[in-house]
Every structure is written in structure tokens, then in C-alpha cells.
Amino acid sequence: MRAAVVRDFNADLAIETVEDPACPDTGVVLEVAACGICRSDHHGWTGKHPKIENGSILGHEYCGTVVEAGPKATHKVGDRLIAPFILGCGTCPACRTGVSNTCADQIVPGFGWPGAYAQYVGVPFDHNLVALPDGIAPALAAGLGCRVTTAWHALTDRAAVQAGEWVAVHGTGGIGLAVLLLAKMLGARVVVVDIVAEKLTHATAHGADAVVNAAEVDAAAAIRDITGGGAQVSIEALGIAATTNASVECLATLGRHVHVGMPSGDGMMQVNMRAIYTKQLAFYGTRGMPSWKYPTLLDMIERGQVDIAPMVARTVSLSGASAELRAMDGPTPPGTAVITDFNR
Q: Which Pfam families does the record cross-reference, listed alphabetically (predicted)?
């Protein structure tokens, strides 16, 4: 099969012919219909993720059709499926209690397991995979990726956002844009923070109640002013110290910070603990979403309760993935890219 392979960090992915994936006993092989290009992939491409090495195949935001099923698989050939990026084992205490996104034995394609920047991907633990509704196109499904699902879990499970609350979102990449769209659906008021004017204009066009350019003003102070004392919920969607502290500092007393952005490198940063202590804030981490929550979200999307079309800005070929990763070295335009052509 054709695959885009990491050979050198910060260099174009090598488009190579590699062996087709072996079918896991507990899973399936999917013919990949679409795969999102995520900032988490950029962390790996630059050498800042410990599980990415020479020969790795990135790609954890994928959907496709089953072409081979293992003897212990729960799906069959021909099924059209979407996968959460975290594949829980299904048998540990975390999986048995509904929090498979915290499974200690999880597998994440693209990070230590061959990913979906390829024509085919082997998926173990296929009980995690969910039927993709006919009304959702593959490119849009891959655009859900870890962005929309993680944002939905952050808002509904971790932050328990209520209608009328102010939600601040720091960084309007894929996660930030998803938070905006979903929080508005939940009836929240949303203030968006970025340093790229084009992204702020885009956010306004898609329902943001207010925007803040952090390159021009103190973002936390601006949000406290806009919201009349601070947001009830703040979502950090970049993974750096500056946005983490702005997120904490923009909150009202008893506010909830949810940390979504994946920190790069060793993950260490200095955080304003005095703000957390003084305002008695809740500080949540979140990563992914359990697969059992997928059908409800997919149903809402298919019925038009929320329009996530703005998530996908462009579709590219497999050979075009390198340019998308390289662009993440600096400010990027609104929306995300999805690989839909695996023959070029």
C-alpha cells in the first residue's frame, strides 16, 4: 500500500510502498476513506513525541470501510466506520466503567501503532469503532477526528457547560473552532482568543459573541472585561504556558479551566497557582472521548443540530500532507485539512 512515512523530523514525509497491515485478531483492517491532519501529528513530525521515530506512519483521525475482519472482531467486511483516536482494550476497569479514553492499555494509531496516512490501517480493539451514518461524508467525518469529539467531551463531561454561561476558548485551530460551534449549540456565550486576525474574523462569522487578539491586548484582562468579571468556563486549546495562564486568569471565581491542548516536549510549564487558589478554580485535563458517546454526537450532526462543515477547510492528497504539517510551524489559516486522495 501507499503510505506517508516519517524518515527525518521536520522533513517531507516519504511517500512509499509498504506492506499492507496485518489484521489484528481483535480488530479489522480499514480501507481509509479520509484522515485528518492534526496539530498532534505536527508534534510527532517535529520529533517532540516520544513514540514517533524513523518509519512511523502518522494519522489518528480516520474513517473507512472494513476490508478484513479478525476472528474476534465485532464488525464485518463492508462496514463503514469511524474510529476514536484512543482505542481502549475493553476489559480493564476504565473501559468497563465507561471511561475507555483513560484506558491504561490503550492503542493510538499514529503514535506507536501504524496510523492512517496510508491506504489501509489495521485497527485493534474494534469494539471502539462506530458506524458512520450515510449522511456524513468521509471528509467531514475525519474532520471530527480528535477535534470535535475532544471538544464535545470537554464541554459536556469535564466542564458541564450550561446555557447562558460564558465560555472562553484560547486558540482557534481545530479544537478551538469545534468548541465555538458546540458551545453555541449548548446555548453558551463564547469569547474566542487568537493572534491571527483572519481566525478571529472567521470565528465571528461562525457565531463568536466576542473575540480577543492576544497579540494586541492582555487576553485575560480583556475577557474579564467582556464577561463582566470572568468566564465560567475556559478551554485551553494550544498547550503552551501563555495560553494556559491566560485561561486560568480569565476565569471568574469558581470557574472551570479545561486543558485540551497537548503539551509538547516534556510537558512542563509554570502555571499561575495563585489564581487557581484565590479564585477556587477547578482545573481539568481531558483527552479524547469514549466511543459510547459517538452515536449521540453523530446523530446531532446528521440531523443538523450543529453544523461542523466549517471544520474542514480543504482536502489534500497523501503527498500534500507534508506541506500542511510544515505550515503548522507558524500561524495557520482557519479550518483544518483532510487527506482524501491516497493515490497521489
A: ADH_N, ADH_zinc_N
d(CA 148, CA 294): 10
| 322: Cα separation from own chain's centroid | 19
Domain carrying residue 113: 2-146+289-341
Does 8 have pLDDT greater than 80? yes
Sheet strand arrangement including 210-213? 210-213, 189-194, 166-170, 231-236, 251-259, 282-285
Burial of 62 (0-12, 13-18, 19+ CB in 10 A): buried
Q: What is the pTM of this model?
A: 0.93
Asked if residue 335 and residue 251 are part of one domain, the reply reads: no
Where residue 208 sits, what CATH number does that domain have?
3.40.50.720
How many angstroms separate the CA atoms of 185 and 305, rounded? 7
The answer to whether 193 and 219 have CB atoms below 8 angstroms apart is yes
Q: Determine the pLDDT at residue 144.
A: 87
CATH number for 20? 3.90.180.10
Do 174 and 164 lie in one domain? The reply is yes
